[in-house]
Design brief:
Elements lengths: L4 E2 L2 E2 L2 E3 L5 E2 L3 E8 L5 E7 L6 H13 L8 E5 L7 E5 L1 E3 L5 H4 L3 H17 L3 E2 L8 E4 L4 E3 L6 E2 L5 H15 L11 H13 L10 H8 L5 H9 L2 H4 L2 H10 L6 H17 L11 H23 L15 H15 L6 H8 L5 H14 L5 H12 L8 H14 L5 H15 L5 H14 L10 H13 L4 H13 L6 H12 L8 H27 L21
Antiparallel strand pairs: 1-2, 3-5, 4-5, 5-6, 6-8, 7-8, 9-11, 10-13, 11-12
Helix pairs in contact: 3-9, 5-6, 9-10, 11-12, 11-13, 12-14, 14-16, 16-18, 18-19, 18-20, 19-20, 19-21, 20-22, 21-22
């Protein structure tokens, strides 16, 4: 990272070396604030005598214009011509290269356009003049924001001649065509061209075409354009535009109001999962998921304290916990992004007695192993997770059992070789045949990581398979044979000779023909392993005494 000193003043931001984008006027860098590691974007001006007035106007307007929808400015530095900066919230240039993907969700593109229109509505007393493909950025929450105030001027007392002169200078420097010199129509035409860049003619909604053509020609104002679009069926039927407005105001709503907004999200999600695909990067990860997590924490707090005293909570909405958690788990696992506090949310969820919550967590647990550390799984999740094997609900017992392989690598030696095996010994004699069957399958799956020293792995496996081969149902008996087949490499020849063949042998007399057939094949596989070892012994037995290898006629033994 670059460390900059401005007139002996230490720059309070660290800037990455490579610019993420560059224009004729600015270099744009990712950076962080040294004081608290806050991600920022640093726009470094390429000041020169030709562009100085444009740059300084941009810096000045950045200081005084606090308008929603412009890149939020944190700080500006303009005293040194070589080190003129505008520091904003972390933003990225609009992903024009990825427009094809974004266009798959027309609701998302229309939402972005509505965000730009809201910003331009706040700027109605100003002329922007720079509105184009290069002035659109995306903030960390996936909102479309504008940067570029080089021509920005108050309409009050503005000289059209002076503006036209500055506009020609600006567009000449950036090497782009000036859409129009008139300060009253330059933004309208710029917006029209921008929308046409975002939406190919074939993708423009039918009830927008006339209005977009009119604004592109500078025949209507931005304000009239926005009012016309808001009255179209396309705008009214876009579920994201309303939802986004609700989401923006969530922080000022009471718990009941927040619940209403998230219930709307749930309905949208159930109606069409596609609405939330191909949105602008950041919206799902940094806007929707964190807000959902907050309301889940609220509901969990209520759920835990409801038995005691739900003071301050004027609604009972614990039934919403499961669908909200399901949406969060679905979104985080699909985007593979996990907000701050997500791990705590999951570990706290495992403590809840609600079976639906537990079942949901078990379904998603394989995808949560990434964000959760080994120690979090072994110390905070496993103690609650393992209780599922003794739950009175057979479905929960079974799902807990099936999920064991994904967490065993995170367990401590004692948890794996002592506690877990004790629990599995109980599920092996469960009243449910599926659970008994799955127990043997799980023991087979985790057999390779069981300790060879603690309790002797061969003994544990031999005992487990013996027990299941005596099961009254066929499924567990077949599962035991499957386990023996999978574990053949784990047994040494002495154990096979002394223990395992005697485990398989009763299967040869089983009342089920399928068990008998499987047992016969398996017996022969194990026997073949012994015979190979015997051949090795014979080959290596060159030191044997000739007397030892003579056969003895026991019929006549001692008759001499």
């Amino acid at each position: 990272p670059l460390h900059m000193s401005i007139s002996n003043f230490q720059f309070p931001y660290t800037i990455e070396e490579t610019a993420i984008t560059e224009t004729a006027l600015w270099q744009c860098f990712d950076g962080t604030r040294k004081a608290d590691s806050l991600p920022v974007t640093v726009f470094k001006a390429k000041r020169s005598p030709e562009n100085e007035s444009l740059i300084l106007n941009a810096v000045h307007k950045s200081k005084i214009l606090k308008i929603p929808g412009l890149c939020t400015v944190l700080e500006t530095f303009d005293s040194d011509p070589q080190s003129t900066f505008i520091v904003t919230e972390r933003v990225v240039p609009f992903p024009w290269d990825n427009l094809g993907s974004l266009s798959q969700n027309k609701f998302g593109v229309e939402l972005g356009i509505s965000q730009l229109l809201a910003t331009l509505g706040f700027l109605k007393n100003f002329v922007l003049g720079t509105l184009s493909k290069d002035s659109v950025f995306i903030n960390i929450k996936g909102e479309w924001v504008l940067f570029g105030l080089e021509l920005c001027s108050s309409k009050e007392g503005l000289s059209a001649f002076e503006f036209a002169s500055r506009a020609r200078s600006y567009y000449n420097i950036i090497g782009s065509q000036l859409p129009c010199e008139d300060p009253n129509t330059i933004d309208s035409m710029g917006l029209g061209l921008l929308i046409k860049s975002l939406m190919a003619p074939s993708c423009l909604p039918k009830d927008w075409i006339v209005n977009v053509n009119m604004i592109s020609d500078g025949k209507i104002t931005i304000e009239n354009f926005r009012k016309r679009l808001e009255n179209t069926e396309t705008w009214r039927s876009n579920p994201l535009i309303n939802f986004y407005q609700e989401l923006r105001e969530l922080h000022i709503k009471d718990p009941q109001g927040k619940l209403v907004v998230m219930s709307n999200l749930e309905n949208l999600y159930l109606e069409s999962r596609e609405i939330f695909r191909n949105l602008t990067p950041g919206m799902i990860e940094n806007f929707i998921i964190p807000e959902l997590c907050e309301i889940i924490k609220l509901l969990m707090t209520q759920s835990i304290s409801s038995a005691a005293s739900p003071i301050g909570m004027n609604f009972n909405a614990s039934h919403k916990l499961v669908p909200f958690l399901a949406i969060v788990l679905d979104l985080t696992s699909e985007t593979n992004t996990f907000p701050v506090g997500f791990n705590d949310l999951i570990t706290q969820s495992f403590k809840l007695p609600d079976r639906q919550v537990r079942f949901l967590l078990l379904i998603y647990l394989p995808k949560l192993i990434g964000p959760l550390s080994k120690s979090e799984i072994s110390s905070r999740i496993y103690p609650h997770f393992i209780q599922g094997l003794t739950d009175s609900d057979a479905t929960l017992r079974l799902q807990t059992l099936k999920t064991i392989p994904c967490i065993v690598s995170c367990l401590t030696e004692r948890q794996l070789n002592n506690e877990l095996l004790r629990f599995l010994a109980k599920t092996q004699v469960d009243s449910d045949v599926e659970i008994r069957t799955w127990t043997v399958i799980i023991i087979s799956k985790i057999s390779t990581i069981l300790s060879t020293s603690v309790g002797n792995r061969s003994n544990i496996l031999a005992t487990a398979f013996t027990k299941s081969l005596k099961d009254p149902q066929v499924k567990p008996r077949l599962a035991a044979l499957y386990g023996l087949e999978k574990s053949i490499e784990l047994f040494d020849v002495n154990t096979i000779a002394n223990k395992i063949l005697t485990v398989i042998a009763p299967g040869l007399l089983d009342k089920s023909p399928i068990v008998r057939g499987r047992a016969k094949i398996l017996f022969e596989e194990y026997l073949e392993k012994l015979e190979k070892e015997a051949q090795l012994i014979q080959t290596n037995d060159s030191t044997a005494d000739s007397e030892d290898v003579k056969d003895i006629d026991f019929e006549n033994y001692g008759c001499d």
